[in-house]
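Holo prediction. Input below; ligand is flavin-adenine dinucleotide.
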Amino acid sequence: MFDCIIIGTGPAGISAALTLKSRGKNFMLIGSAGLSAKISAAEQINNYPGLPAVEGGALKAAFMEQLAGMGISITQASVTGVYDMGGYYGVLSGSDSYESKTVILAVGVEAVKPVPGELEFLGRGVSYCATCDGLLYRGKNIVVVCTSKAMEEEAEYLASLASSLTFVPLYKGASLSGGNVTVITGMPVAIRGSQRVESVEFRDRVVPCDGVFMLKSAIAPSALVPGLNAEGGHVVVDRSCRTNLGGLFAAGDCTGRPYQYAKAVGEGNVAAHSVCDYLAKV
Ligand SMILES: Cc1cc2nc3c(=O)[nH]c(=O)nc-3n(C[C@H](O)[C@H](O)[C@H](O)COP(=O)(O)OP(=O)(O)OC[C@H]3O[C@@H](n4cnc5c(N)ncnc54)[C@H](O)[C@@H]3O)c2cc1C
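Structure of the complex:
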């Protein structure tokens, strides 16, 4: 059982990891081993103390060096669910699961808003995880909405199981093909159904289906953690980065504006200290 699992390898998650390491905690840092894409995406950062006019790539290199220097490794994975087990948390990533006394959500904010119907039908035909739910759709007709080329592998796996797969890439240069694959362009307008998903509506057509896979790098925190308080897509936290769930903390962009490195790093630090306070009391 870990003392803490930090989800997300952006500035908030990195900062939390550095502090937990300094405090001698047994934790896991889960996310992209190449760190948040939002770090290297910045051309030049002028408001980060101590590093004037730093390029995103240079900041990323400095973060990587600092993590390695502190002996902090990253578990390269995407978390698909966090469950309150009454006293500890179960953290799922595909077919892997981990247990931890506390969790820090440092998952950033989604660029793509949920499609109407997506959250309503989550677990009733909408899935975020090909590995977890793919087998449920063997021989079925599915729609796969994919937000990045890096996730095409998951769509290929789903194509190997489904009877028919309508592939909706939200990026250029998609290359999924196959006898049972139909590629269409355009954002879905809505996911429709009654008890379960029945179709996906686009501007120019309706595609009947048994299920929809939304393959994206960031899942809305409230969809990731059942029972978590969120407002306007942001996790509700107090000044100690505590959420409404005991032992679960949040930091960085996912708690709200301003979306800035310095704020993310600051909250990561606060959340880590709150984890230590919490662990001292349980
Ligand atoms: C082009 C650009 C330029 C910017 N310039 C500036 C600037 O000059 N100054 C400034 O202060 N800010 C700037 N920002 C904003 C800054 O990048 C963000 O505020 C900062 O990265 C937020 O850090 P974070 O750790 O909260 O989230 P993020 O950096 O978004 O990191 C969150 C990480 O968690 C991962 N994640 C999400 N869900 C999961 C999951 N389920 N499992 C595992 N991992 C998950 C994400 O993939 C991501 O890697 C810029 C942003 C962009 C895009």
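The two ends are 14 Å apart (CA to CA). That is the main takeaway for now.
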